[in-house]
Write a structure and sequence with these properties.
Shape of chain A: globular
Strand order of the largest sheet of chain A: 1-2
Number of strands of chain A: 2
Number of helices of chain A: 5
Strand content of chain A: 5-15%
Structural class of chain B: mainly alpha
Oligomer: heterodimer
Order of helices and strands of chain A: EHHHHHE
């Protein structure tokens, strides 16, 4: 059906580093459901570039501190 | 489980159940009469109507009770919805094409109506299955 994503993320670590922010709180900041945050954290959903930037802004970090892509990825 | 995922489950179950009831009624009648004489229209309309009603009530229940009234549909829900519809639309096209050829070949109305109905049911069931798989396994950009 689809190719699994090779994008990884540090969402969980960043949430805990920012006052143990809950998935629901992050979802509220971005304007999505908590299930979407869970899906992103588990690598089951790749957010749009715009949503990725919104997430990075919530944590006030560069995009590549939130999402990573392995070298040599195709 | 989000409101939209629950709604997809409800839609899948009600569509499948309604078609199973319809098939049970019509197949029973087909064993005693030729297709041209089988009364299928009331059964088709009643089962379709009941399916729509049950699905609507089920979604309302899911929205008010099981998710605490949170009925938000976000961008992921929308992408999964579009993916499911895009993948399953071919069943409607196939049903319409089959009905066209059956009409040109002067098949009985019974078979033409039923092949169109089957196309709609497959569209709903396969579309729901694809959406649920995307909710469970994940939705990634095909490549």
């Amino acid at each position: 059906m689809s190719k699994p994503t090779r994008i990884t993320n540090s969402l969980r670590a960043l949430r805990f580093a920012h006052g143990e922010m809950t998935q629901a709180q992050l979802a509220e900041h971005i304007g999505v459901t908590r299930q979407t945050i869970i899906a992103i954290e588990q690598g089951r959903y790749s957010p749009s570039l715009e949503m990725a930037f919104q997430i990075a802004q919530v944590f006030r970090v560069p995009l590549d501190e939130v999402f990573q892509y392995p070298d040599g990825g195709q | 489980m989000s409101y939209e995922e629950r709604g997809t489950w409800i839609y899948l179950v009600t569509c499948t159940a309604a078609y199973a009831v319809y098939l049970a009624i019509v197949i029973t009648r087909l064993t005693t009469a030729p297709a041209a004489d089988v009364s299928y229209v009331p059964a088709l309309l009643w089962t379709t109507g009941a399916s729509v009603m049950a699905s609507t009530l089920g979604r309302t229940f899911a929205g008010t009770v099981t998710t605490g009234g949170d009925r938000r549909r976000d961008v992921r829900d929308l992408e999964i919805y579009r993916f499911g519809e895009y993948t399953s639309r071919w069943f409607v096209v196939a049903g319409a094409a089959a009905a066209l050829f059956m009409a040109m070949a002067k098949w009985d109305y019974f078979w033409i109506a039923n092949v169109i109905y089957l196309g709609f049911v497959l569209w709903a069931v396969v579309g729901s299955g694809v959406k649920l798989a995307a909710y469970r396994r994940g939705l990634q950009v095909p490549g």
